[in-house]
Design goal:
single chain; mainly beta; 5-stranded antiparallel sheet
């Protein structure tokens, strides 16, 4: 695995220099001083935050205690959802193409420090190449083994203090030649061979290699061909080293899932939520794309890796619905998709009254409604938050961000001191596409850039619990100067009552708050 721009940039952020090959332990010899060693296996884990609600000698109201959970696997975490059994956790792996869908079952309820990890294998039940909104899949769960946080943390081989500890005396980097506690590397887990080396006659396959990459994805005997990305040359020939099953399952979760035959083709997976009344898990997929390793029917069938998902492309994305039995997902179909359209003068490429690259979902249980937020993929000038009503099967726009802004992380609190809240985040508002995705125009006020992210919330006074679903007053797609504004639904009709909706700003990147810290600004590194 050679140096690439993304990895080099990542290391420069932490003041490191990346040599040509980071699979070996040699890179650690360039780390300047004790306690500054870099290991990719320290990153990519799930975090759990516990918020204190009371007061004690050691804790104050609102204090957060954060725990890094190694037992849940290492992925590109977008969102994890804990089911009502307090043991089962579903995770969205937000790879561009090549993502995996995982299920973690904790050994004990309300304790995510140990448990068994599973990866999903999908079987398409509808014709290959069909539209996503007509698709159905069966889901099989393949075990990746059980372990606990401490076992995986200790296997990394670095004694940096982790969250929950204050001991800095052991802040020491162990290099590969330190036999007492060597730094874990990819080569400790997998024996990897270049696909060209796995084919006896590379010359005879030169044209195939040029066409589809890596000599048609063929591997030597004893090696498994996998693909966990969408690039034509992203095939790998891997052989698991003896006794490294658990290490592979946690440190190389996506690769090991592919190695076991699970589906690694999900594209731009976002949020996950659960409707207890219907017994359904919902998952946002921002874009149904990818001919080489994604969710489209694979143009290189048989060229390494899997081709379990074979759909027609939908650049506006979909929200998928999954049936649940005893907290376990059993199948998958589409709740609804966005609809592509010809680009208009405002750069809208998805139907305005439908979804445009859904990124997050959040269930409002007592309303029997689902919040769905847009992602900024260049397909909509003003991204929105919609409400999907399960009774009427209708979609209502309740919020739009200033042009270029991305609506993310909607959350719902039904009753806090008699008020109902819907919170959300707006990323990079008032940024405008001027030439597709490659050219951004940033608007400024004086010397201050105003594309900073901010959080806020809608709220209304709750009078009583109603048996029927509320009706949100819809807002239209913005026009003219309204495209520069934050806009939201003004009222909710619930039963016989019309309830006024208000919006409040909470915090913006750069705002000062408690103890002179800055919201959304990196100030210092704490733990790992």
């Amino acid at each position: 695995m050679q140096e690439d721009a993304e990895t080099a940039s990542f290391l420069r952020y932490y003041g490191r220099v990346l040599p040509s090959d980071f699979n070996t332990g040699e890179m650690m010899s360039v780390c300047p001083g004790e306690g500054s060693c870099f290991s990719p296996y320290k990153y990519g884990w799930a975090w759990e935050a516990k918020i204190h609600t009371g007061f004690s000698a050691d804790n104050f109201r609102g204090r957060a205690v954060v725990t890094k959970h190694f037992s849940m696997g290492r992925l590109s975490y977008k969102e994890s959802y804990v089911m009502p059994d307090d043991r089962t956790v579903y995770t969205a792996d937000t790879a561009q193409h090549g993502g995996v869908f995982t299920k973690f079952v904790a050994s004990e309820a309300q304790d995510l420090s140990a448990g068994e990890l599973f990866c999903a294998k999908l079987t398409q039940l509808t014709p290959a190449g069909g539209a996503a909104h007509d698709s159905r899949f069966a889901i099989e769960w393949i075990s990746m083994g059980a372990t606990d946080d401490s076992t995986i943390r200790d296997a990394i081989g670095i004694n940096d203090p982790f969250p929950g500890t204050t001991d800095t005396t052991q802040h020491k980097c162990h290099k590969r030649d330190d036999v007492q506690n060597p730094l874990l590397t990819f080569d400790d887990i997998f024996d990897a061979r270049d696909v060209h080396d796995s084919v006896a006659d590379t010359g005879a396959n030169e044209q195939i290699a040029n066409d589809v990459g890596h000599n048609n994805g063929r591997c030597a005997a004893g090696y498994t061909s996998i693909r966990t990305a969408s690039k034509p040359d992203s095939y790998e020939c891997l052989r698991l080293r003896q006794g490294m099953e658990i290490h592979a399952s946690r440190f190389e979760t996506r690769r090991y899932a592919a190695y076991l035959g699970c589906t690694t083709e999900f594209s731009h997976v976002g949020g996950i939520s659960y409707n207890a009344k219907a017994g359904k898990v919902f998952m946002a997929v921002s874009s149904v794309q990818g001919q080489t390793g994604g969710m489209e029917a694979n143009i290189n069938v048989g060229v390494g890796g899997t081709d379990h998902i074979k759909l027609a492309p939908n650049t506006c994305g979909c929200v998928f619905s999954m049936s649940v039995t005893d907290s376990s997902v059993t199948d998958m179909e589409v709740l609804m998709c966005g609809t592509p359209k010809a680009e208009d003068p405002d750069n809208n490429k998805c139907q305005l009254n439908g979804l445009s690259n859904p990124e997050n979902v959040a269930m409002m249980e007592d309303m029997d409604q689902l919040l769905i937020s847009d992602k900024q993929e260049g397909n909509r000038r003003n991204n929105a938050v919609f409400v999907y009503d399960f009774d009427s099967k209708s979609l209502t726009r309740i919020f739009t961000a200033p042009e270029g802004g991305e609506t993310t992380n909607p959350a719902y609190w039904p009753d806090i001191h008699g008020n109902t809240y819907v919170s959300m985040v707006i990323q990079h508002p008032l940024t405008v596409y001027t030439n597709g995705r490659s050219d951004w125009e940033y608007r400024t006020i004086g010397q201050r850039q105003i594309d900073n992210a901010y959080t806020g919330y809608l709220h209304f006074k709750r009078t009583k619990a109603e048996l029927e679903s509320p009706v949100w007053h819809a807002i239209t797609s913005p026009k003219g100067d309204d495209k520069h504004l934050l806009r939201f639904s003004q009222a909710v009709t619930w039963g016989a009552m019309e309830l006024q909706v208000k919006h409040n700003h909470l915090s913006r990147t750069g705002d000062s708050f408690l103890r002179m810290q800055m919201f959304g600004v990196f100030t210092r590194w704490v733990g790992s």
